[in-house]
Design goal:
Length: 359
């Protein structure tokens, strides 16, 4: 009987492989039906596109996906040293998400050139592509976790995995720590040293905020209130938190802005115009954030450069051209994210913003 780790590994790999091939087959089948209708119900063109999709999936599976998974499983040196980005996510974006977005753009171009409008791509195929992308992201984040038993916030996780600690910090009182300088003064007093000018200068330093005085002052440390505190009673289950459940919530919130951008591309006035090209291109660029590990410091700047700033520009342009095809909430979110990133990253380092008299 296979072990639990083997079953979990097989489950994750089957889910990721299904997320790789199912969106391609669905999108290509819809595109094949579109080509058939454009060519006057030509079944030959339909089966050619279907055969091309089968050949593509077979080729990328045997030549790219399977070798990559084998190298990751065997933990080869050049792959085990990668800790700041995820090779599986990069391969998925190139092999699945990019072709699907390209087919969506091609379907719009074919219909515009022929002067027809067919309902070949409804909400289901596009949502399937994004849902598969989110599933791959979730499996990559939750892979270090166990699937059974309790797995609280204090559990040990891999650095590339999901480390979510969104609990509110509290102040914890620590004991006073004696410095080396203070210990030397104490030893000097015990050895019978005569206090003179050095000792006086030491007193003056203490009065001006020297390290010996600052370290003798009260120290505090931020800690999680979930640690060392338990809740019992009939409503104790309301206080329970599990990092595995928070991974699912975090992933869907992470991709919410991209989902809205792709939804805008599905609007008929946008889909059958030249604006579909920049919308899908920028939507794919935002998915490149998936390559970076969840808690890499680069993720914040990549989110502004690949998502919020480009999305702000394209949304303002879409509102000017087509009206309110997207809610105003999303461009406002992009504006706030860009401004706060610039302020807290760059402006707070200026001398004028480092004055303690300011709020």
């Amino acid at each position: 009987m296979p072990s639990g780790k083997t079953v979990k590994f097989i489950l994750y790999e089957v889910l990721q492989f299904a997320a790789l091939i199912v969106p391609i087959f669905v999108i290509m089948e819809r595109f094949a039906g579109l080509i058939r209708d454009v060519r006057g119900r030509d079944l030959t063109a339909y089966w050619l596109v279907v055969a091309a999709s089968i050949a593509y999936v077979t080729s990328v599976t045997l030549l790219v996906w399977a070798p990559l998974k084998y190298v990751i499983l065997k933990q080869r040196r050049f792959i085990s040293e990668i800790t700041q980005w995820r090779p599986t996510a990069l391969a998925y974006l190139i092999l699945c998400t990019l072709p699907c977005f390209a087919i969506l753009i091609a379907s719009s171009k074919v219909q515009v050139d022929r002067g027809h409008r067919f309902e070949g791509f409804t909400e289901l195929p596009v949502s399937l592509v994004l849902f598969s992308l989110i599933c791959v992201d979730i499996t990559e984040r939750i892979r270090p976790c166990r699937l059974i038993g309790h797995y609280g916030l204090d559990a040990d996780l891999d650095m590339s995995g999901p480390v979510l600690d969104m609990s509110c910090p509290v102040l914890t009182h620590l004991e006073q720590v004696t410095t080396v300088t203070g210990q030397l003064h104490a030893d000097g007093g015990q050895n019978g040293f005569t206090p003179g000018r050095p000792e006086a200068s030491g007193r003056r330093q203490d009065n001006t905020g020297s390290p010996s005085r600052s370290t003798r002052s009260t120290a505090y440390l931020y800690s999680s209130p979930s640690r060392g505190r338990s809740y019992s009673g009939p409503l104790g289950f309301l206080w329970r938190r599990d990092i595995r459940a928070e991974v699912f919530v975090d992933c869907f919130l992470f991709w919410l802005d991209t989902v809205e951008m792709v939804r805008v591309a599905g609007e008929p006035e946008v889909f059958y115009s030249v604006w579909v090209f920049p919308v899908y291109i920028l939507a794919f660029m935002s998915t490149l954030r998936m390559i970076i590990t969840p808690h890499n410091p680069l993720l914040s700047s990549a989110g502004v450069a690949l998502q919020d700033l480009p999305f702000l520009i394209i949304r303002v342009a879409l509102i000017v051209v087509f009206g309110f095809v997207t809610p105003v909430l999303y461009p406002l979110k992009n504006v706030l994210v860009c401004l706060t990133f610039i302020y807290f990253t760059f402006l707070t380092k200026l001398k004028i913003f480092r004055r303690q008299s300011m709020f």
